[in-house]
Amino acid sequence: MRETVLRAEGLCKWFGRTQVVEDLSLEVKRGEIVGLLGPNGSGKTTSLRMMLGLIPPDAGRVTILGQPPQRARDRTGYLPEERGLYKDERALDMLVYVGRLRGMSRTEARRRALEWMARLKLEDHTRSKVEKLSHGMQQRLQFIASVLHDPELLILDEPFQGLDPIHTLLLLQILGELRDQGVAIVLSTHQLDLAEQLCDRVAMLFQGRVVVEGTLEEIRQKFAGRVVRVIAESLPPDLPGVQEIRSFGREKKLILEEQADPDSILRALLERGARVDLWERHALSLYEVFHLVASRA
Amino acid sequence: MSWTKTFLIASHEFFARIKSPVFYILILNPFVGSMLIGLLFGLMFAGARENLELPVGLMDHSGLLSMLPSKEKGDENFLIYSSMEEAQAALRDRRVRALVEIPPDYLESGQIIIWVYGTSSWPTMVSVFNQTESFLRKTIVQNRLDSRTARRVIKPIDGLRIISADQVRELGDLDLRGGIFGRARAQVQQTVRFLIQTGARYILVLLLLLNVSISIMYSYENISRDRANRMGELMLSTVSATEWFAGKILGVVLIMLTQTLIQMTLVLAIWGGISWQLLGNLTLLSPREVGLVLVYYVLSILFYVSASMLAIFVHPKVTPVLLDILGLLNLINAAVVVAPSSRIAIFMSFFPLTAPGTMLVRVLLKAAPWRDVVISLGVLGVCSMWTVLAGSAVASRVLIPGMPALSISRPRQRR
Questions:
Q1: Which of B141, B71, B51, B56 is nearest to B101 (CA)?
Q2: Domain range for A268
Q3: Which of A84, A139, A271, B159 is the most buried (most CB within 10 A)?
Q4: Residue A206's closest chain B neighbor by CA?
Q5: Considering only CB atoms, which chain B residues are within 8 Å of A18?
Q6: What pTM was estimated for this model as a whole?
Q7: Whether residues A134 and A159 fall in one domain
Q8: A60 vs chain B: nearest CA distance in angstroms?
Q9: Domain tally for chain A?
Q10: B156 touching A, CB under 8 A?
Q11: A125 and A239 inside one domain
Q12: ipTM
């Protein structure tokens, strides 16, 4: 059985009168990638900060490798959503500094930084000042700063932000390799298609609460049959058991209520004389699940 | 707390700062100021040496000299004139370095007039004053005067009027006692050596307090840099808030010590060199004073840096006001030179925000008894620890984007 690296239990956070995180529990094991998904302001970043010990939770507790997060700093890597690098410093110097703060020797930090820079195609920019680098390059540099010291837990807040498709794929590949090496990874992202490719499990946050959690298969299973793809001339708006109709020209998607039976709805439709060219149960993407959950909430 | 990480942050701050041109500008500004003051002193001393080779003219209107037999009137330092026109011509032609005029009512009033030349008047006046004083005392004794004039032996000069080529200054009896201007003027009674030593101490007060003010500015820049670069999250996920805060403070202290060391070396090399040339070996500060000045200087920076960082953390709207208050308090420290042993100065020595600066001034002006040193060090030690702890406690709130600052700001509503 794989070791639990991160354990968050019943995390709550209030900012003034607003509860931004409500009873969040999460467990991440070695070699596992967990995605924290949710719309803006759903509490993802606050949750990640609590997991890192950057801000204290108002309730609940976090342990990293059995220790409080503050004691596991050198075993944790963090990529913040806001890029944080000294703009007037050279890229390599910046990485060496961060590496040394993580407990590495200067030589080791330099060696590892050069390796990572080559891996992320930044080898020509070792002496460039951070401010001279593009957003995508800065993002890659920031990523290197989070993995330079071989962390056992990697927490990434919007890691694909600002990356072009080539470097997005490269990062996906690297994260996959890190998972294979046994690194536990928690990431938050808006890019649900990437989360779908990468994550072993996801937790969807909405208004500070986890509304959906599990492996991709479990989630798909849970929402299977909730969406039907239809090509029809016209659809009556008051179909029983239909929560919402999304129209894409002739093609439509029916979002069904939780206990609704698609076959009964089709029968009701045909009884009303509708001409139906296509009626199929739709396998939901994460994006659709997310949308479904968000609209329901 | 890991001291390795703290020192790493401090050294990073240090090297980042010394790469900046602002660092060198801030070194040169106080240095140039000190050098200008030093140059002024230097000019005065240069003039003094030149003039000291000449005698002093003496014009007696009181009849004091006429009472003496002619063989006893002579003095190698003085040339006695019989008319004012003749004496003034001698001064104008630089045959005498100054002219002492003894008024008719001298024996009653104790007032004399010294005529001197422009910028070289001050040191000339010092030596002329001393020589005149001993000459008058000797003359009065030789005259075997009655009880009416005997008191003049104790205080031959009770008031002084100085007339120079470019200005007329009058110094009364009150001016020779206490107060900042009186203190400065009282140097008339001292030697040139004392003048140099006192001057050096005032320059040190000026330079060090100026540097403390600069350290407040450095702190502000330091935190602003981390904020602007959004380094808070990265740093605080890497080191503890205490390590970060202590490292920042230590970084500024290292920068300020380096800056001061460079300034002092430059000032002492040039200004001290001039003094050495003119006056030979001089000990400006005793080893005890050097030690205490160093301790209070480091504590000043430490405390002001911590307090200003804390001020930055409170709230962006309040920060400028708090920083201004800190700067003002530092300025008030400079005012202690007026009365370094007064009750206010003693109170300020034990008040945390003024203690290091005030004690720095008092040590340099030889007005800091051991009792005050011990109490102020105790107060500063305790307060510094609290400041570091307080700074660490609020660091994360300020450095992490989106986090509300201290309670004076309304919590940010999210969702």
A1: B56
A2: 226-281
A3: A84
A4: B415
A5: 411, 413-415
A6: 0.69
A7: yes
A8: 19
A9: 2
A10: no
A11: no
A12: 0.79
